[in-house]
## 1
Amino acid sequence: MLRVLPIVCHSFALTILSMAAVWGQEADKSEWVSLTDGKSFDGWKINESPESWTFVDGAFVGKGERSHLFYVGDDKPFKNFEFKAKVKCQPNANGGIYFHTQYQDSGWPKHGYEAQVNNTHGDRKKTGGLYDVQDVMDNSPAKDDEWFDYYIKVEGKTIIIKINDKETVKYTEPDDKKPGRQFTRVLTEGTFGLQCHDPGAAVSYKDIQVRRLPD
């Protein structure tokens, strides 16, 4: 029995360590959290041109003069995360999804990156691109008048964008990248913002969810 005991103890210790590792992994995983209540703008804040936004059938609908809708429902900023939403564009619509951004009263958001939303607008930079950083040019992976899945992941210095589960961007920010004068376009932390700036066509956003990843 004395010879067996060390083996038993060692096996028990390995089991405990293995269980602790699993518990640690589970603790690192966050659940998907909805950023909307499906019936109002609660948790979101509109800056200029509030008349550009309406709420229709569970979706935020942007159509009108330039305006941005910022998520303000959580005081803790988002750093590493997975984000997903359903988006629909009318023909010639143009919008965007900002991340690592901050609320501001007016103007184009200075902070963070923009994930482009544009299927058939005249701007050659199309849906699924990281605006002015790694663009999808000319041909959109999504169609007008149809809901499509928009996915964004930020982990460390890497940004991944997928449209309908197809990867359109995988961008790793250089360690020495500096903020620009007009737009920072660097990874820090922040919130999300939805863009509207087209009086002639609507962009709709719904089922907006986020899952935090370990920092």
## 2
Amino acid sequence: MAGSAVRHATFAKWLRRLPLFRAGPRDAQPLVIGNRRIYVLPTGFGLFIGIALAVLNLGSLNYNNNAALLLGFLVISLCNNALIGGHLALLGLKLRSQRPEPVFAGQPLELSVMVSPRGSEPRDFTLSHDTSESVFRLGAEPIITTLSLPTEKRGHLHIERVRIATLHPLGLARAWCTLNLQEQALVYPTPQGQDLNAYFSSAETGSGRQSRQHSDQPHHLRTYRSGDSRKQIAWKPSARTGSLQVREYEQGDADALLLDWNRLGHLDYETRISQLCLWVVQAEQRQRRFALNIPGLRVETGSGSEHRRHCLEALALLPHD
């Protein structure tokens, strides 16, 4: 079953390279599904029923059996209504995607889509992208369903489109519609390597006393930036100026770490990136100030979640070796 899904995904990727099957431009959101966006094709079970009905009708004509003919045409009319029912199940649905948050390579990327119904009748739908799919039941209230997309390498993950489909009402045909996302999700490098403390312990030896001597002496005030600790806010100057002011301490740069690409010459290209990624994560968790030096870019000393995001983004977008 898993091998079949992989083969189907590989064939779908090859098919999308052809001009006729490429995803169109990004859809304006929310997308309201109209008649021109819905496709309906029979399932395997539907094909079997179609062949059985064809045999039934041919045999009825051959033997001039009116009762069998009546039964055959009655079932054909029910199947036709099932095709129309699948089309109507999708018609009028409203889709809105939410921008996925960055993740580390190897972790699933969570893509959320809000689906709003047109009516109140409960129906089962499937949201899918390549090998990932989510089955949900939609009633009278909007629902947010999430796809877990696999990530293998750092950088941008391009999500062209997702598909919403249904087998409603009898499973004879699959009705589907595609939402062209053209979304760029960011995947950070995998954080792995030597622990931060183990690598920088010798460089910090002997500096603790000097740092403590200046820890209570503010060097200057600056405007508040996202990610700054509340303990650094100077409330009285902030009240005078009308904007948040943050204290910069003399020991800030003395205790700051330099995460330097050039000090990791013994590691290969991607391993260096993973090692620096681990140190960025650990430095932010331990509330350490740090700077990042990588080829073509130096991120100045800072701290907090915004500084961490900036550094991880820079590592993720480094050229591939």
## 3
Amino acid sequence: MILDDFLQFNPYGLYCKYGDFYLDPKQPVHRAVVSHAHADHAVAGNVEVYCTEFTAALIRLRYGKNAGKAFNMADYNQPFTIGGVEIAFVPAGHILGSAQILMIYKGIRYLYTGDYKLQPDKTCEPLEWVKTDVLITESTFADPDIQHPDPVSEIKKINAIKINIMLGAYALGKSQRLIRMINDEAPQKTILVHHSILSYNNLYQKAGIDLGKYQPYGRKLMKNQSEYVYIVPPFTFDSYYRAIGVKRLFASGWKNLQANQQDTLYISDHADWNDILLTIEKTAPGQIWTLHGDGTSLKKHFGDRIFVKILR
């Protein structure tokens, strides 16, 4: 029997009382099972952290001595138990080390997706399908009107831009993916990287991920028009909104984050509407629970066919 209260929100985040642990807590807790290393899913200061090896490495890189007191790392598809709940990490295809979290309790399978994507990405492990009784899916882009374009076609648009480009992207995950894609699809471009991104690049390369060619940003270089692509984090991108001599682009699935209506680069690391529907088809859940977005459209789409619960 599916337990309606298997996961519930409290002030610290999403809590499983049957195992006494939190999934991606919003505040430090005694026991955290973490899907991936983005700051909105992995906070500093947890006492015990359960995650994949590369997620642990990225959290430690981000937070240093405040990362967490004890890390318990597991390989993908290697079951372990917390308080009577069997848990396994399953590749999520979001960033390096990202995982869906499969929880089995009294024979019922609960699959928490964390953030995930289906699009190919050479810089992280590809998503794997697993069957489940309850799919707890992110719903960031759970809207029938949102369908992401082909990322390769999107990145190829920069081939037509002959002036230097300032390319905004999140430092962890998106930047590494873009470096690899630009090397593959626009090899004539010279990639310059903001200093805040370099440490993540180094960790990716230690993990065996080949990002291709890039170099640290140099102010003198950008004074020349030589088809440079300067990859910067959001804060830097927003700070130079009046920059001249460059084409400003921001890589995101969100329309409101694009530089303007004409200069767009729709490259997302989240599942869009069609991908979410395919995930539901492949995982074959009896129930769907939504979070990290709005599950209203999924509830309307499935009607009486599948029970959809909006966790928040």
